[in-house]
Amino acid sequence: MTGELTPGNRSDTARSIDPYLGRVFVGKYRIDRLVGEGGMGRVYEARQLALDKIVCLKVVRRELADDETQARFQREARAASRLNHPNSIQVLDFGAGEEGELYLVMEYVDGRDLQQLSAEAAPMPEPRVCHLMAQVLDALTEAHSRMVVHRDLKPENIMVTSLRGDPDFVKVLDFGIATIQDGKSRITRAGVVFGTPEYLSPEQARGEELDGRSDVYSAGVILYQLVTGRLPFQSTTPMGYVLKHAQEPPLPPRQALPTLSPAMESLIERALSKRREERPVSASAMRDELLAIGRAEEVGTVALAAKPRSPRRATPVLAGALFATALLAGAFWLARDRPREARAVSGNPAARPDNLSSFLAKADAAFQAERYDEALAAYARAARLPSAPAMVEKKIGLCYQLKGDRASAAAHYGRYVGSTPTPPDADQIRRLIAQLER
């Protein structure tokens, strides 16, 4: 027996269905309610008797608890228990029960998992998705710094709750514990697929050694699912998913959702690269890019909602996408050009960096309010400063495009792509110039 029965706490029917319900497990946790069940085992709501505290107790299936698996479980659980990130579930206890079953005790989170949320709300708005997944990537960043790879990142392992004034606060579950499912680093054992086939990285499907970029791939699958409302691959069998992840390219995200921003599509496609070297270099890098996309999309909705002022005005979708790209690149170019600001400061007050920041802040505020003439004037003043980054020319081009002045828009976009060093989105802007000049 794994513990004592609590009199009156469970019926004979419940006892016959689940022998753990109502027991005091390992003398410390009274098991009150079955929360869920999966390939690893069962998850219960329990009460830690010594502290009178509700906890989450995962009991692993006994058939997985051979000697090698127990050693790996202890090692991984110990590593996971050292994680101390607000977006990572806190591991409170772990070990083996009296009958040899492995268990893990975690903090209890009152919320819904991301699978439930996405089933109701997907496809989700990009800013919300960016906020949710940035927290997931934050948790991954700390775990990877401690050499803990999740290995089974999926929506069911991401809880969303209301905490610290945020209704979409994320907690990531089961860090490093999924390793007990694949024993000797193989995807299959006796014909059974371990892990979650819909979210496996290609290298995981091939049974290769894993690092943090495997989690980046899985995060890319979740990102695809949240913004499009579907998975990147469709199959009727688990092995079908495994083979598609290993061999086939995914459906381009904008074919699944044509209104998706180009920046988001680019990030997803790189995260889902078959070659891990072509993915974002780390969870941290992916998070930073995702946050930039989220900020750009929040502002870009202004351009999407702008009313036509001229028959020749660029389409709102194109304008909104371009402004999203502009803001995404903005932080990079401002950071790179910062040394030029320092060198350009002279006795002329107009050349001071704080004046540049002031002009840009006024211009951005005017743009968000759709006061494009005012925004143009402020951007033009900023562009005249020696310290002005090339990104300002792109913003001026966008303002002219929204006003319907295609020639002026093309001219300023041309100045942007002609700057040194060459902007990373130069090819994309050249294609836009060609469209404007038709």
Q: What does this entry show, briefly?
A:
This protein is an alpha+beta fold and 438 residues long.
Anisotropy-based shape: elongated
Overall structural domain count: 3
How many strand elements?
12
Q: Stretches where pLDDT falls below 50 for ≥5 residues?
A: 1-14, 180-194, 301-353
Strand composition percent = 5-15%
Residue share in helix:
40-55%
**Secondary-structure element pattern, one letter each:** EHEEEEHEEEHHEEEEHHHHHHHHHHHH
What is the CATH topology classification name of the largest domain? Transferase(Phosphotransferase), domain 1
Question: How many separate helices?
Answer: 16
Structural class: alpha+beta
CATH class of the largest domain reads Mainly Alpha
Task: Give the strand line-up of the largest sheet.
Answer: 1-2-3-4-5-7-6
Query: What's the architecture of the largest domain, going by CATH?
Result: Orthogonal Bundle
Characterise this structure:
The protein has 3 domains: 3-107, Phosphorylase Kinase, domain 1; 112-295, Transferase(Phosphotransferase), domain 1, CATH 1.10.510; 306-436, Alpha Horseshoe (Serine Threonine Protein Phosphatase 5, Tetratricopeptide repeat). It has 16 helices and 12 strands. It has helices at 12-17, 67-81, 114-121, 126-145, 202-205, 212-228, 238-247, 253-256, 262-271, 283-305, 316-344, 353-368, 372-383, 391-403, 406-417, 426-436, and strands spanning 3-5, 23-25, 29-37, 41-48, 53-60, 91-96, 102-107, 112-113, 158-163, 166-172, 188-189, 192-193. The strands form 3 sheets. A 7-stranded antiparallel β-sheet has the order 1-2-3-4-5-7-6, with helices on one face. Helix 15 packs antiparallel against helix 16. The radius of gyration is 26 Å and the shape is elongated.
